[in-house]
Amino acid sequence: MIDRTWTWGLSAGAVVAVVLAACGGGKVGLSAHVGDEARKPTQVLGGDDQSRCDFRGRTDREVSETAGPGATLPNVRRVYQIVGTGDDRHKVLVCREVDTNLDGKKDVVRTYNEKGESLREEADSNYDGKVDTWITFASGRIAKEDLDVDFNGQPDTWKFYSSGQLTRIQRDVNRDGKADVWEFYVEGRLERSGVDVDGDGHVDRWDHDEIARAAAEAEAAKQSASPGAKVADAGAPAPAADVSDAGTDGASGADDAGPKSKRLQQKREQVDGGTP
């Protein structure tokens, strides 16, 4: 990753240095530092890159421009909040935005709180210049995701998470702005779904029985196809009756019981991997 910084400073009213960097006519960043004063934000040159981070015109923000994998020009912008004074002065990341398809326009932006935890994210997933994904975080973990799957500017799919795990999805199938399909998940697997048939906002039909049966059948098929299951069946121990019958003929029967018991134990050890 390439990290580029452009700075200029003033001391006692005199210009000390001015440094500008430009590559191939692309956009460059410029940050200013005046003694111990707050740093001025980067100024974007060469056109609008559809930035959504709040830094322009603010003296309490510092900007870093870097080039990510596959990029020759900076395509990742990080905006920091300058807090504290003197020895306590430090910066905290408050916004990050990325041009993921390297077309010169930022298509993903995420904001952070003072602890550095994610707050919100917006993204343009089809690169048409319009946001179609909205994500909300709680304690740094994803809590809700709104999606505009038909790219008409309005969310029509809503995903809900608990402790970072998907728990529920609501879908607007008939595009009336209201959810008419509800899906509930347990440990990332679909458990049941409900459908609003008449458009009154309430579930009219639950499909949990079909979903549960399909899941059970899939699990049973997986178990039957498991190589371990076939080995266990092939090496299953002989019925216990063989051992008890071996000792029913008096002393001679007792003599035979020892070898049979030993053979049975050996079979069990083969099945259990050598564990008695």
Give your account of this protein's structure.
The chain has 276 residues and is an alpha+beta fold. It folds into 3 domains: 1-112, no CATH class; 117-225; 234-271, no CATH class. Helix content is 19%, strand content 33%. It has a 13-stranded antiparallel sheet. Strand 12 and strand 13 (165-171) form a beta hairpin. The longest helix is centred in the last third of the chain and has 22 residues, at 250-271.
Helices and strands in order, then pairings?
Blueprint: E1 2-4, E2 7-11, E3 14-18, E4 31-33, E5 61-67, E6 76-83, E7 90-98, E8 108-112, E9 118-123, E10 133-138, E11 141-147, E12 157-162, E13 165-171, E14 181-186, E15 189-195, E16 205-206, H1 208-224, H2 227-234, H3 241-246, H4 250-271
Parallel strand pairs: 2-4
Antiparallel strand pairs: 1-5, 2-3, 5-6, 6-7, 7-8, 8-9, 9-10, 10-11, 11-12, 12-13, 13-14, 14-15, 15-16
